[in-house]
Amino acid sequence: MTEVKIWQWGLIIASSLVLFFLSPWAKDTNQFFKAVQKKKAPNTFMLMGSLIISWIFAKSITNAANLGLDFGIVGGVAYAGYYLSFAVAGIVIYKMRLHGKYTSIHHFLSSKFGKTAVTIFSILIAFRLFNEVWSNTMVIGSYFGDMGTSAYYWSILIFTALTLSYVLKGGMSSSIFTDVVQMGLFSILLAVILFTIFGNDNAITTTEVVNSGIWSFETGLNLLFAALLQSFSYPFHDPVLTDRGFISSPNVTLKSFLWASVLGALCIILFSIIGVYAQSQGMQGQAAVQVGKAFGTVILLVINFIMITSAASTLDSTFSSFSKLLALDLNLGNTLKFGRWSMVAIAVLGTIPVFLDAEILSATTISGTMVIGLTPVFIFWKDKAPKISFLLSVFIGLLFGFLLIFKWFPDDLIFTTGKYADLLWINFWGILCCLIVYIIPTWIKK
Fold first, then answer.
1. N or C: which end of the chain has fewer CB within 10 A?
2. Which residues contact 354 (CB under 8 A, 6 or more apart)?
3. Tens digits of per-residue pLDDT, 64-97?
4. pTM exceeds 0.70, yes or no
5. What is the DSSP string of 130-149?
């Protein structure tokens, strides 16, 4: 085992043990499912930090660096477009709580569209959470060995078990508390990497970073506009995000979500500079890995530790959201025992695809297209609509998601060229169709 691998194992084990001992112990369901500590909900800073780090997951910062390599800073800005999701969700949830008096997304759906809507929605988000487990742990595994090697599998199993151990202690309380610690770590480590990039012998200048991309559809704008379009539906199928919209007061929640939107986007853009630097040095492959290797063991370990930190924060949030989904939202068992066993179940089920050599899916493109049918459901949450509107819109969204996966969409309806052109126009036409089929039953009913 190389020196780097030994240090990587040390970082995973040490950081997980520290988080385990620091994590609060939940003694009741309010602490476990709603992060209430000493009768207080999380404040603006804690909620904002938790939102940002739970979304800056291992796969997303890998994507950000690679987009910086492919498209320059335009790639980073394009990927940061997804962080409009926080602002959209924050404003909609704020209004739903204040004017609709809803206590959760499931409460809203069951009140307005009935049990069928709740069932379909729950299946969608359960699949999302299941997908989050293996898509993040496989990124961690790739830092320890090639896919299929024993080092790859063992790192995934141990990392998942260690993350599960500390979130079992306190559920959502553990998740939010450790998220704040992980956000602090992420900020420090990112600063170290940027300081190295701008301060070494082959340093890149700020001007070079700003001018590193071309603002055209072919070189990043396809993705930017697709991200902005998806931001009106994407956040609502992510319980990691929406669960945090109902645990603090409406005002604290709104401020947290708006700040998270700005600062989360900034973090992604800053991380994409790693890819911009890789581009300036003529590097190829995985941008973060190549830059780490170029700067030596210490920076490679810093980048690895960022991956570990971000993956752990997403994983613990996934476990806590899944247990809340089953226990509270679906009312299957509002007890600590049930909540903890739910976490164990998603950890085991979500790890199985790793051994089936499942290809890592992009959680922000394909899955994002499949849920565009939620756009009118939440944007027009206050307007009256029959149950059929929900069903039509959601199923049309799923249909367009499959058109993207299987590349069945007609080229005549794609009006730009380059990478992500199909993603942009399938989302554009898909959202348009979802809006039409959502509104038509309302007109007929009138």
1. C
2. 134, 137, 138, 141, 153, 156
3. 999 999 999 999 999 999 999 999 999 999 999 9
4. yes
5. HHHHHHHHHHHHHTTS-TTS
